[in-house]
Amino acid sequence: MENDKGIGASTGNDNDNISVGNKLKKGAQDAATSMWVISQYTTAFITSQVKKLRAKDEKEMTEADLEEDRMQADATDAAEAERKRHEQEALGIRNS
User: Fold this and answer.
1) Domain total for the chain?
2) The domain containing residue 51 runs over which residues?
3) Chain Cα centroid distance, residue 28
4) Residue 75: C-alpha distances to residues 41, 62, 82 (Å)
5) What is the 8-class DSSP label of residue 57?
């Protein structure tokens, strides 16, 4: 039996507490987040390749590699935070 928020009896699994509409919304948001991450990884890769082509020495090539890694790590961290926010939103948890 569900209450007015679409949350049914708990079985200990968070996914059991999410209504179908919220599951669909969360899935769409997660898919959009994944597409954003792919675009950020692509941007990092292209930026790194251009910098490597223009590099005058090994130091500049290494810096390009490090910047690519940093950009990818930042994108991954942002995506994890966004997915966590989607999960909390789907469960009806609000951050103050």
Assistant:
1) 1
2) 18-91
3) 12
4) 7, 20, 10
5) S
The pLDDT assigned to 13 comes to: 55
For 48, other C-beta atoms within 10 Å of its C-beta total: 20
Q: For the ranges 3-12, 29-38, 41-50, 68-77, which has the lowest average pLDDT? A: 3-12
Q: Dihedral angle at the C-alpha atoms of 30, 34, 40, 44, nearest 10 degrees?
A: 140
The full 3-state SS of 61-95, as one line of letters, equals HHHHHHHHHHHHHHHHHHHHHHHHHHHHHHHCCCC
Q: Cα 88 vs. chain centroid, distance in angstroms?
A: 14
Distance CA 53, CA 51 (A): 5
